[in-house]
Amino acid sequence: MKKKTLSGFWLLLCVTSSFAAVADRQPGVDYALIQSSPRKNVFFMGAVMLSRSVKLSFLSNVQITYVASENEVVRGKITDADGNAIFQGDAVAKARSTKEQIIVNIADQKVKKTKQTLKDATLNLSRIKKLFERHVFSERQHEQAENDYLQAASDYDVGRLELLEAQTNLENMTLNAPFSGVIEKVFASAGSSLCDDQPVLVLSVFDPMSVKVELHDVVTDLLCVNDQYLVYPTGFSKPEPGWLKTEEIFTNYMELSVKNRLIPKRKLSQEEQKLARIYSRMRVIKAHDKLWVPARSLKKDKEGTFLWVISPIANCKNQKLKKVRVKTKDMFIQKRSAQYQAVDTSEGLSASDIVAIRTGNNPVDGGRAVMYDSCWLFQPDEKVWVSIPHLAEHIYTVPSDSIKNFSKRSFLLVIDNAGQVAPIEVFVYDRSGQKAEIIGKNLKAGMKIICTKESGLLYLGQKVALGKKVVF
């Protein structure tokens, strides 16, 4: 028995020695060295979106009397530290409110009546209470006075509640801008009737704009909130600085805010840059034997109300501005989603004239002006390039064969100084022929990586011998 056990031990020792000898005779695995990429910048594609946009509608069925025009800039609500409204915001739409105003008047009169009744009941209770304590009035009379007081107090509170509700309904007949922005779209005009679920207009914020960049989680792990982000507008080689919209980088994307502005559609000459600018214009109309001008074209100075009339200059691209004095009437009409006001003038204004709505660069009477047709630097839904210079520190060049894919993820099989193989996940930034640029964490130039056409799964967690060095 002892002899058989010894023979089995020698057999096991021989087999183990044979496997070790075979392993020693196996060729080493092909490998390559990670190289630094010459890139100084890393770019990703981003989608431009409105940073804020809302559809505004009334809370009940209404008939509209006024709607702001498209592209009109409005001011939003302003509050104090306690949340109390200092400024309600510009009115962007109004509805017929005759009924609501009458209900407010009735509720107000009811509050005044119940307030006086409460005052009388309070005085009566005080008088009866004193006489009751002197046994002049009975307990029943005292209880009746208390009941009258409580009923009067209840009626007064109900009246105040009804007044508050009526005032709220009246206020809801006016839509105020909740934030500063631009009227992007208008769905209804004055005179139309809308249900409570139908939107009136869309109010959007065009400055700043939001840029959403889809990123691999390997990339987001390398970013910090204080990194530099540069956004390239379409058609421009100079980037605009961006900043994180939420002060946070999510797992697979980030959202940047970038300042937006209006830019001219054509390049102005040096002489034109010094001239007054006309940003928008509309035509004077005649109706009901009266002249009507866009309400937004009316300006005021120390001498009264005026508007800028635009007239062409012969053989010249520029326009001439003339200041025309007018007297406004308390009469308004709605035309083409714009409000017009009736005016009187003795300075030769006619229905064929074109007036400036918004001007800039200090226009003067009789001076020249240039039509400043403009568009936003960043437009919603367009694609832009976003540069993240910080990532240039983490981009490297490797052979294409060294990138191994498992479960739709990309890895490098790194060989440490002891010959052990471990996986490091990477993002493949660019692949061109036999080379690829990758971004990864805890990588550095000179690290050894397995470079074979096989999957490499066999080497994970194993100790390998180095074979042929792949030069790329």
Fold topology:
Elements: H1 2-25, E1 29-33, E2 35-36, E3 43-56, E4 62-67, E5 73-74, E6 78-79, E7 85-87, E8 91-95, H2 98-133, H3 139-171, E9 174-176, E10 181-186, E11 193-194, E12 201-214, H4 217-220, E13 229-232, E14 240-244, E15 253-258, E16 262-264, H5 270-273, E17 276-283, E18 285-287, E19 290-294, E20 299-301, E21 304-312, E22 319-325, E23 327-335, E24 338-344, E25 354-360, E26 368-371, E27 374-376, E28 383-387, E29 395-399, E30 403-406, E31 409-415, E32 421-432, E33 435-440, E34 448-450, E35 466-469
Parallel strand pairs: 1-35, 17-26
Antiparallel strand pairs: 1-34, 2-29, 3-12, 3-28, 4-8, 4-11, 5-10, 6-7, 8-9, 10-12, 12-15, 13-14, 13-28, 14-15, 16-27, 17-25, 18-19, 19-24, 20-21, 21-22, 21-25, 22-26, 23-24, 29-33, 30-31, 31-32, 31-34, 32-33
Helix pairs in contact: 2-3
Sum this structure up briefly.
The chain has 472 residues and is of the alpha+beta class. Among the domains are: 28-38 and 393-469, conserved putative lor/sdh protein from methanococcus maripaludis s2 fold (Beta Barrel), CATH 2.40.420; 58-92 and 175-199, no CATH class; 98-171, Helix hairpin bin (Helix Hairpins, Orthogonal Bundle); 270-372, Beta Barrel (conserved putative lor/sdh protein from methanococcus maripaludis s2 fold). It contains five helices and 35 strands.
Structure description:
The chain is built from 5 helices and 35 strands. Strand 13 and strand 14 form a beta hairpin. Among the domains are: 28-38 and 393-469, conserved putative lor/sdh protein from methanococcus maripaludis s2 fold; 58-92 and 175-199, no CATH class; 98-171, Helix Hairpins; 270-372, conserved putative lor/sdh protein from methanococcus maripaludis s2 fold, CATH 2.40.420. The strands form 7 sheets. Strands 1, 2, 29, 30, 31, 32, 33, 34 and 35 form a 9-stranded mixed sheet that branches. The chain has a 6-stranded antiparallel β-barrel with strand order 3-12-15-14-13-28. By secondary structure, the chain is an alpha+beta fold. Helix 2 packs antiparallel against helix 3.
